[in-house]
Design brief:
The complex is a heterotrimer of chains A (305), B (296) and C (543).
Chain A: H1 2-29, H2 43-52, H3 59-71, H4 86-121, H5 126-139, H6 143-157, H7 173-199, H8 202-209, H9 214-226, H10 228-242, H11 246-251, H12 258-267, H13 270-298, H14 300-304
Helix pairs in contact in A: 1-13, 4-5, 4-7, 4-10, 5-7, 6-7, 7-9, 7-10, 10-13, 12-13
Chain B: H1 2-17, H2 20-28, H3 30-52, H4 84-120, H5 122-137, H6 140-150, H7 156-183, H8 186-193, H9 198-234, H10 246-255, H11 262-289
Helix pairs in contact in B: 1-8, 1-9, 2-11, 3-4, 3-11, 4-5, 4-7, 4-9, 4-11, 5-7, 7-9, 8-9, 9-10, 9-11, 10-11
Chain C: H1 2-28, H2 33-40, E1 42-46, H3 62-68, E2 76-78, E3 85-87, E4 90-95, E5 101-106, H4 120-131, H5 149-153, E6 165-169, E7 172-176, H6 184-187, H7 198-203, E8 226-232, E9 236-241, E10 255-259, H8 263-271, H9 283-292, E11 297-310, H10 320-328, H11 332-340, E12 345-346, H12 368-377, E13 389-394, H13 397-414, E14 418-423, H14 425-434, E15 439-445, H15 452-455, H16 472-483, H17 487-504, E16 507-518, E17 523-524, E18 540-541
Parallel strand pairs in C: 1-10, 13-14, 13-15
Antiparallel strand pairs in C: 2-3, 4-5, 5-7, 6-7, 8-9, 9-10, 11-15, 11-16, 12-16, 17-18
Classes of the chains: A mainly alpha (305), B mainly alpha (296), C alpha+beta (543).
């Protein structure tokens, strides 16, 4: 187990290197640069600006220096926001996104798993159709639709919540619901599917035939393998959730990391794109590792070897 | 031995059942029938509807902009006075087409890739999965922007490429997780011992057991793809105005929900009905493909 | 089974009670920003986007300007209502006979926020900073009227002593100009002419350091009416009253909160009482406010023109008659009335009305009949065999709506098909720079209140003229106007130039911009402003 984790960490290094290199190439292929503006400055001034950021040197020099700084743990200054370092921005914004993402994950799991498991247990009964209709409705409500709807209902009409901001405990409710409901719907459908597959398996049938109650079977045997697809889905989903959502954080004016991902790319803020990509890559790799470990634990057959 | 035989048999049966038995079970499945009917309804409406409404989807009436639904315009008009129903139907061609085709592409790549990685295991698996990690982490916006300048911006192929590049990843991870489990199962080991080729094992023992999660995740991919398309048009890839798609219509409508609700309700209903239909069909297909499912 | 269900029920019950608890504390809260602001004298204002910087020598945008206006002050200021030049750091000034030498006498009360006196040397340091080529200040050319400034900035002279600025004593600053510049005192209120606090700059880096942290709260030393207290990206900038400000007793507010809320959410925030002022109004909301709260809507004429740039290099657009056909066929009244809706004026010429007192006489007609005739003369009767041109715009719903409408107009009136294409901002800029377009949506906001800022765009050497159109006669007129000292004769030269532009039409003007805002009735002292310049000293919050 431990060797596996160490191995994965070692694998992460070349993976990150490839990600960083590919991103570097993508950035330089994209049209337009960080200092292009509507009223363009003269070429001489542009050269001066670029000199501050070392953009006047050859690409290979820039690349090597970037890697060197990275090894020193320096992501550099943001090109878009003068006076701000990339690390500073991420350190300031990530805790907010993390909190929002965890709330949303809680919403998603609390809705998704009971809904999916319960629906599978009621397979081919009308209540299953009803439960799955709810889940499907959730899939049809992306955050950019659900958000304005919730705002209109609970913030504007009923006036229960602030329409924006991140100051009070109550400010967490609408964003977490907006972000979490769709993930909950996905989880519900995956959980139901997994549960159905498992319930029809031999060993469950045997267990039932032996006279074990359904709840015992579900709790002791079925759930663990039924949630396999859910767990595989949760890896990238969690990384996505806690690294912030552009739509939700913009809509509710939450100072999280989400908008930076999109805006950095649109502004060609090279260092910021690099920083966010690297950060997200580490999250993805970590969570996929966790998922693999959980899956190993969940699959007795893999665990043995 | 008996157990393996039985497994073998049921799986063989699964392989064969992709044909008639499945079809019969699918047709008998109540939700699948409803789903199929709804889907056909929407598809036919999008294909033929534009000819029947007698409206031109590009025709404008600036003075009559943003009208609520009426006898002349069943779903109202947008801010340029264009008939919304007509725009939804025309947009549906793109959205359903992209939703269906891109999902198929994502499934094809995801399942093959995931199954191979999970089956081969060890180094191959590690290598293939790290590649997935790389693709997960690449900045999607940058990728699309680079695509738009590198290729002809309006090619539909590019939309598939951009969407395909992201949507198959989770599919591959799910499939790989399942395959890994199946690979260690007693019946696969028995089949190997009896000298079956890897190809045969993949086809006859692994794939049929993957269909459940694949179908479920496939139906989940369709709405994701349809909505993703609107982000692509934002970045200048794919559908350009005056042409529209459901994703862009819903996106625009959502902002104006409290003033012009019909701008959201119209496209959202069409979108939802289609997604419901796909999910019902998916559930039916899943049940129909499952040889162990009790007949009803 | 049962235990399972009860577990689920329990979970749902807990979740529900959690939500209810949240709902309860939500009800228990409630003093909106607007109420709190009126109580404490703090203004909550939406600025639409995060400022890129708070360094007056590096910024170019209006958003940044609107924040820095609270923190810094130049030699002169503008009257909040009349926009007439008023004393700033300089309490008086003397202009020499030849109008090329300005002597400014400093207000002894002018202080930095740490209590230091604002000295002429501070200004010299600041001018040197912005003009140093190594800083790469994008708007350094705003200082070019100063003698020797351009040469220094272009590295033709490396001695700052050659620049026409000096401090004969501790209270006097002398600026010498290249040539008489009528709007010079006006210009001094622009952020490029503002001072920065030399010790602060040098404490956080060299004089020409771009990547410096001196603009952070706690470090920023300014001389404006307010002090920077808090700055968090995508969350807000807060400023509080500066006790060292020279006229601090006249400042009506105790603080300002600048909130970079996205446009759609901004309106919602305003409706829920979280903002006194917004940076814009969503188009679809305008009619609702007109009907329900007309007093909260504010439309101010802005010094900007929205236009389509035509690439006249080759193809049909090289033919003046085709360009005229395209321009004449657009019913601009229809567009402004039904699509834009905020009282924008249809543009029949290029320079916005009343720019520096100038009213263009040239007018292009709205005449579809004539447009069709021109197109036929150019060899495309009824648009037959007209090649498929592309109209490029940067991604935005309003640009798209307008483009779709105009596409339809050209199809209906001229029988020609135009293809629409959108690109995200940076790609759009790159395409525009490369000249690889047929028709391109563009806009121009005046840098200062003078027709020159608009009409110089048509000059062949202007870096923003991507149309490939050039006319030596036009260039000569603009050059002549720059040297003309008689204001009336100068305006006549602009009239002549504008007439040429409107005949040749390398650009198709569509409409003149309007700034639309939502404003709470408690906000007093926020006056219409052509350059969107709203000094905060004058603003008060009263119930």
């Amino acid at each position: 187990m431990l060797t596996h984790i160490i191995k994965r960490f070692l694998q992460a290094i070349p993976t990150l290197w490839i990600i960083v290199t590919a991103t570097f190439v993508l950035l330089r292929l994209a049209p337009g640069g960080p200092f292009d503006t509507e009223k363009p400055v003269s070429p001489e001034i542009k050269l001066q600006i670029e000199a501050h950021y070392g953009l006047n040197e050859g690409l290979h020099v820039q690349y090597l220096r970037f890697l060197g700084n990275l090894l020193k743990g320096d992501l550099g200054p943001s090109y878009q926001y003068a006076g701000w370092d990339v690390q500073e921005i991420i350190a300031q914004a990530f805790p907010v996104s993390l909190e929002l993402g965890l709330w949303a994950l809680l919403v998603a799991l609390l809705i998704g798993i009971p809904l999916g498991v319960f629906a599978a247990l009621r397979h081919n009964k009308p209540s299953e159709s009803a439960l799955m209709a709810i889940a499907t409705a959730g899939i049809c409500l992306p955050s950019f639709v659900l958000g304005p709807m919730l705002l209109l209902a609970f913030a504007i009409s009923l006036d229960w919540f602030n329409p924006l901001g991140w100051n009070y405990a109550s400010d967490r409710v609408l964003p977490a619901l907006t972000l979490g409901l769709m993930y909950g719907a996905y989880i519900a459908r995956l959980a139901r599917g997994g549960m159905l597959d498992v319930l029809q398996n031999e060993f469950i049938r045997t267990a039932r035939a032996k006279g074990l109650s359904l709840s015992a079977v579900v709790g002791r045997h079925a759930l663990r393998s039924a949630l396999q697809p859910v767990v595989a889905y949760l890896g990238p989903a969690t990384a996505g959730l806690i690294s912030g959502s552009f739509v939700v954080e913009t809509l509710f004016f939450i100072p999280g990391l989400g908008p930076f991902f999109v805006n950095a790319a649109l502004n060609r803020d090279y260092t910021m794109v690099m920083g966010t990509v690297l950060f997200y890559a580490i999250l993805i790799i970590t969570f996929n590792l966790i998922v693999d470990l959980v899956q190993m634990w969940m699959q007795p057959r893999t665990r043995n070897e | 031995m008996n157990k393996e035989k039985r497994e073998q048999k049921s799986n063989d049966c699964a392989g064969k059942s992709l044909s008639r038995a499945t079809w019969q079970r699918l047709v008998r499945h109540r939700m699948a029938r409803i789903g199929g009917f709804l889907f056909l309804l929407v598809a036919i409406a999008c294909l033929l509807g534009p000819f029947l409404t007698g409206q031109d989807f590009a025709a404008q009436d600036l003075a009559g902009g943003a009208q609520a639904p009426s006898w002349d315009h069943w779903l109202g008009t947008d801010e340029l006075g264009r008939d919304l129903l007509e725009r939804i139907l025309i947009g549906g061609r793109i959205s359903i087409g992209v939703g269906f085709a891109a999902t198929c592409v994502a499934l094809l790549i995801g399942v093959t890739y995931g199954a191979l990685a999970g089956y081969c295991g060890m180094r191959t698996d590690a290598l293939m999965m790290r590649f997935v990690d790389v693709l997960y982490a690449l900045p999607f916006t940058m990728l699309v922007v680079v695509l738009t300048v590198t290729f002809d911006q309006k090619s539909i192929f590019l939309i598939f490429l951009a969407i395909g590049a992201v949507e198959w990843l989770t599919m591959a991870r799910i499939v790989r997780g399942q395959t890994k489990g199946l690979r260690r199962s007693s019946f696969v080991e028995a089949a190997l011992a009896s000298g079956a080729s890897h190809w045969r094992i993949l086809r006859h023992h692994i794939l049929p057991n993957l269909l459940g999660p694949v179908i479920v995740y496939g139906t989940l991919t369709v709405p994701a793809v349809i909505l993703l398309e609107s982000i692509l048009s934002f970045l200048g890839l794919g559908v350009q105005p005056p042409q529209s798609s459901w994703g862009t219509l819903i996106n625009e409508g959502a902002d104006k929900l409290d003033i012009y609700p019909w701008l959201l309700i119209g496209p959202a209903v069409f979108f939802s009905v289609t997604i419901f239909a796909f999910n019902f069909l998916g559930d039916g297909l899943r049940d129909a493909l499952d040889p162990r499912e009790t007949e009803r | 089974m049962l235990s399972n269900v009860s577990f689920i029920n329990k979970a749902f019950f807990q979740l529900a009670s959690l939500v209810l608890a949240f709902g309860w504390c939500a009800c228990a809260k409630k003093q909106t920003n607007v109420e709190r602001g009126i109580q404490n004298g703090e203004l909550y204002i939406g600025i639409g986007a995060e400022p890129a910087a708070l360094d007056p020598h590096l910024t170019t945008g209006l958003t940044e300007y609107s924040v820095m206006l609270a923190l810094l002050e130049g030699l002169t200021t503008l009257h909040p209502k009349t926009m007439a030049v008023e004393p700033g750091v300089a309490q008086s000034w003397v202009i020499s006979e030849d109008r090329k030498r300005y002597t400014f006498h400093f207000d002894p009360e002018a202080r930095w926020s740490n209590g230091d006196r604002v000295t002429p040397e501070d200004f010299i340091f600041s001018f040197k900073r912005i003009l140093s080529p190594a800083l790469g200040a994008p708007y350094a050319y705003m200082l070019y009227p100063m003698r020797g400034a351009e040469a220094f900035h272009r590295s033709q002279s490396i001695d700052f002593g050659s620049v026409g600025v000096s401090a004969p004593d501790a209270h006097t600053l002398v600026i010498e100009l290249e040539s008489p510049t009528p709007y010079f005192l006006n210009m001094l209120s622009h952020n490029t002419w503002w001072p920065v606090h030399p010790p602060t700059i040098l404490e956080h880096g060299a004089i020409t350091d771009r990547i410096s942290k001196w603009t952070k709260p706690g470090k920023f030393i300014g001389n404006g009416p307010f002090i920077l207290e808090r700055w968090r990206l995508n969350n807000g900038i807060s400023v509080v009253r500066n006790p060292h400000y020279r006229k601090h007793s006249k400042v009506g507010l105790n603080g300002i909160h600048f909130l970079p809320i996205a446009v759609q959410s901004e309106e919602r925030a305003f409706r829920a009482g979280h903002l006194h002022l917004t940076s814009s109004v969503p188009i679809h909301r305008i009619d609702w406010y007109r009907k329900n709260h007309p007093e909260r809507l504010r439309f101010d004429t802005a010094l900007g023109v929205y236009y389509y740039m035509l690439n006249t290099k080759s193809g049909p657009l090289a033919d003046t008659r085709v360009r005229q056909a395209l321009a004449y066929s657009i019913n601009r009244e229809d567009l402004t009335k039904h699509i834009l809706r905020a009282g924008q004026k249809p543009a029949y010429h290029f320079t916005p009305p009343n720019t520096g007192g100038y009213q263009a006489r040239a007018r292009l007609p709205y005449d579809p009949q004539l447009a069709r005739k021109r197109l036929a003369e150019a060899g495309f009767p009824d648009g037959k065999e007209f090649p498929k041109l592309q109209l490029l715009f940067n991604t935005s719903e309003s640009h798209r709506t307008l483009a779709v409408a105009i596409q339809q107009i050209w199809k209906r009136e001229l029988g020609i098909d135009i293809e629409l294409h959108n690109q995200e901002w940076k790609a759009y800029l790159a395409t525009r720079q490369s000249g690889n377009f047929d028709i391109l949506r563009a806009a121009w906001y005046g840098d200062y209140d003078d027709p020159n800022t608009f009409l110089s765009l048509g000059e062949s050497r202007n870096g923003n003229n991507h149309t490939n159109w050039h006319d030596p006669h036009y260039d000569a007129l603009i050059k002549k106007a720059a040297k003309e000292t008689d204001p009336v004769a100068r305006m006549e030269l602009f009239q002549e130039a504008e007439a040429i532009l409107i005949e040749a039409l390398p650009v198709i003007p569509i409409y003149f911009y309007v700034t639309s805002r939502l404003i709470h009735p408690a906000v007093k002292g926020w006056y219409p402003s052509l350059l969107d310049n709203h000094p905060y000293q004058a603003i008060q919050l009263k119930k």
